[in-house]
């Protein structure tokens, strides 16, 4: 089964990621120029331009290209997705939630700017993200753009990020958390936006039904694997290496995969999910090389 | 000048508002059914279905009709606007911001549900609002819907609500605030969403350029008058009458019109703005009766 989906040995993931990141960072920078009130735009830029991996926007651009369009048409949406993701990081770090001090290798927003500005910078990024998609996407039928907005609105809202954070907080400190509950939390907290990133790219690229189905299943598996890896690294890594607070899951008695399944079984599950994700893309051959390589790189950190 | 714009004596504003409110409330109720996580959907519904005046959605529907389309096409957008407005109320009331206990005659969201849920209920309403517009608007060209989303994203973001709240907090406790600063704060905090409500209705209704211009100027004047009246009522009214905390502006040394201009001059200014707002609609005759009557009702509370 796997023979179809091995990435070409000529595919240079590091170079690919570097050039995509540079493109996304430059566009993000231009989309949030410094205006009045300056403190607010500075707070938005502080968190947004802090050098994240840009995994979600890169997935969006790659899915758009795989579906047959130029990556450019998905660039505003890719940047909007990073704004939504950053909003959720800023709000999740607040004292009333995870109370984290460290994010992307810097002080968390509320530690740097105070709570009020952190909340409003998050709100601003969320509102601005939809404006960016609606105003800056060109070369695509308007109906497709509306479908993207509906998808991302859902992924950011109570059925996605916000709902996942509520469930996460609800299950903190509980002794028994089932694998089903854990999967539901992670599906909302990570899977929803990651899947929406891939699907948005597919929609903008004009993917047909079967392609959208394959990309959706790829993204769902990747999203869950990604969160399991994140849980594992919170146990095994350091703040310096990750650029965010670690060990908090255990101290807050968060529902995590290592806690419920153990480290070894969690690692095995992440590997299996990535193999399944790659399998979905077998039929696309070389066109899927970036997405296949991205899936593999997700679990490289725990190998 | 004013002879063109007096509302018809046959126009029954109370009946009009009652039927519009019922329609909007029923749609809002259906747009946020109770799902998991239940506590989150309950928190969203608690603030959204607390019986607000629904001024912004009613303005949106009225502008759509004045522009020549059925109000129905603007109903999802009208409801989305109320979600955005409610989000800003929930977040503005948080301890890190205005720290208000009372809203729409009930405990503020953070007092009822705790800070984390209040923040996430606000985030959820904001994200959901854009999904609602993109998914539920029908009978309108997709390009117009994108223009509405761009307009509302701007009004909710750093150039609108969020930016206005930042400026408001920045100027708290300052001795000297100029009328220009005050106007800028109010333009963002109230004017931006109110103007976007009217403009969204105009866009969905297919208004031509001159009609959009007149409606925009009407809305800008109405929005400023509305905020001045709000400032005045904070000085002269009670929590029971308003359904929200009063006297907070003075105790927090907020920048307000009564503080900068005095009560008498503030009242005169509000009256003049409403007269100008009505003037803009003179050429539409009877079609503008609801918008004219709405403008008049805004200042009735301070007469």
From TrEMBL, chains A, B:
For this UniProt record, the keywords arranged alphabetically read as follows: Isoprene biosynthesis, Magnesium, Metal-binding, Transferase
Q: Gene3D superfamilies per the record?
A: Farnesyl Diphosphate Synthase (1.10.600.10)
Essential cofactor(s):
Mg(2+)
Q: Name one GO biological process term.
A: terpenoid biosynthetic process
Give the CC-aspect GO terms: cytoplasm
Q: Which SUPFAM superfamilies match?
A: Terpenoid synthases
Record has Hydrolase as a keyword: no
**InterPro entries in the cross-refs:** Isoprenoid_synthase_dom_sf, Polyprenyl_synt, Polyprenyl_synt_CS, Prenyl_diphosphate_synthase
GO molecular function terms attached to this record: metal ion binding; prenyltransferase activity
Which protein family is named in the record? Belongs to the FPP/GGPP synthase family.
Entry-linked PANTHER family: FARNESYL DIPHOSPHATE SYNTHASE (PTHR43281:SF1)
- The name on file for this protein is Polyprenyl synthetase family protein
Which source organism? Answer: Polyangium spumosum
């Amino acid at each position: 089964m796997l023979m179809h989906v091995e990435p070409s040995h000529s595919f240079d993931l590091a170079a690919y990621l570097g050039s995509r990141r540079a493109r996304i960072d430059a566009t993000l920078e231009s989309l949030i120029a410094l205006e009045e009130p300056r403190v607010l735009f500075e707070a938005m830029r502080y968190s947004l331009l802090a050098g994240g991996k840009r995994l979600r926007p890169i997935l969006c651009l790659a899915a758009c290209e795989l579906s047959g369009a130029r990556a450019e048409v998905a660039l505003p949406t890719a940047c909007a997705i990073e704004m939504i993701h950053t909003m959720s990081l800023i709000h999740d770090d607040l004292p009333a939630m995870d109370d984290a001090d460290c994010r992307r290798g810097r002080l968390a927003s509320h530690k740097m700017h105070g709570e009020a500005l952190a909340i409003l910078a998050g709100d601003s990024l969320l509102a601005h993200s939809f404006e960016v998609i609606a105003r800056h996407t060109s070369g695509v039928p308007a109906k497709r753009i509306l479908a993207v907005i509906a998808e991302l609105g859902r992924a950011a809202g109570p059925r996605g990020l916000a709902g996942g954070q509520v469930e996460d907080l609800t299950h903190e400190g509980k002794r028994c958390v089932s694998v089903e509950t854990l999967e539901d939390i992670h599906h909302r907290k990570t899977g929803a936006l990651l899947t929406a990133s891939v699907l948005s790219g597919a929609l903008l690229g004009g993917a047909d039904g079967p392609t959208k189905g394959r990309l959706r299943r790829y993204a769902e598996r990747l999203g869950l694997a990604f969160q399991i890896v994140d849980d594992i690294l919170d146990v095994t890594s350091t703040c310096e290496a990750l650029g965010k607070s670690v060990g908090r899951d255990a101290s807050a008695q968060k529902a995590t995969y290592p806690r419920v399944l153990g480290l070894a079984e969690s690692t095995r599950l992440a590997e299996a999910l990535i193999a399944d994700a790659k399998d979905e893309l077998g039929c696309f051959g070389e066109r899927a090389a970036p997405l296949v390589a991205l899936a593999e790189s997700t679990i490289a950190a725990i190998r």
